[in-house]
Amino acid sequence: MSSPYRVVSASEAGAASRPLPGELAQALATGPFCDALRLAIAATGLSLDRIQYRLRARGAPVSIAALSFWQSGHRRPERSASLSAVGHLEQILGLPAGSLIALLGPPRSRRRSRSGLERPPLEAVWPEPDRVREVLERFGPQCGWDDALARISAHDRVVMNPDGTVRSIRCRQIMRAATDGPDRWMAIYRAENDDPALPRVHARHGCRLGRTHDDDQLGMALGELLFDRALRRDEFVVLDYELEFHSAHSLFEAFGRRFRLPMRQYLIEVDFHPDALPRQCQHAIVPRFEQAHTMACDVPLDRQNRIHGLGLDLEGCSYNLQWHF
Fold first, then answer.
1. 213-251 per-residue burial string, b: 16 or more CB within 10 A, e: under 16
2. Bridge partners (DSSP) listed for residue 155
3. φ/ψ bin of 314: left (φ > 0), alpha (ψ from -120 to 50), beta (otherwise)
4. What is the tens place of the pLDDT at every residue in 23-75?
5. I need a labelling partner for 305 at 20 to 30 A (CA). Which of 11, 62, 119, 241 fits?
6. Three-state SS for 15?
């Protein structure tokens, strides 16, 4: 088994033996890791850009977003490559060898919900999670608020065009803050077809649009929805936003959500145009996001050429409506 520790040269040992500021010395003695790292970076005066450059030069590349996550406490290094980078960080920041790594302790198990299911990281529910993580890191540690917002309900309404393409998806979501501080939420759309058309994200009520990012190769569109203010614990937020399509390629035959965290109630509706009615409609639950284990049931069109599905207490699965023309 490889070790994150490295032999320290005489010059590096001399740098690490210099007296440390009292607050930093205390943080290295008692933790937590994020506080010690933040104080160590501040003591050197180095920017995250310079630290990233020095890590890369040592063959231990770490993104600026990851460094920001580590010092804010939203994430911590756990993989072997990250632990190796922490060893280099100790040298770059002039810290005693092993002082930061000792604060990490044993690897943490993934958080579990009340149902006992593992809660994977946000990127893990999508195909190509490593690349998805890189996209999410563009938005910095604010993505960490996702875990701090308990899902109460969500309602998606898909409106179709006469040619069978999708016009828009109107989304309404109610969430409750599990802690003080959440001030935004990330809306994520991922196309499942081979010729993806990415929508524009519009904030309608209860939020305003912040940063956006489209990744054509991943077929992913992201929009940062900013709250009016930071929430306090147990406060609710009601978000109303829309995904608007303009491309002729926006032809798909399924829509739904992936539920990494528990969702009490999910309602999904699809409104078809009278000139493009499907021959078959189904709702499907995909346990653990594995398409091979999809459980599908037929759903009839109502008199308004609409289908709907209702899911209760969803977690660790996808809930979809699908149709065939």
1. ebbeebbbbbbbbebeeebeeeeebebbbbbebeeeebb
2. 172, 267
3. beta
4. 888 888 888 888 889 899 999 988 888 898 999 999 888 877 678 778 877 67
5. 241
6. helix
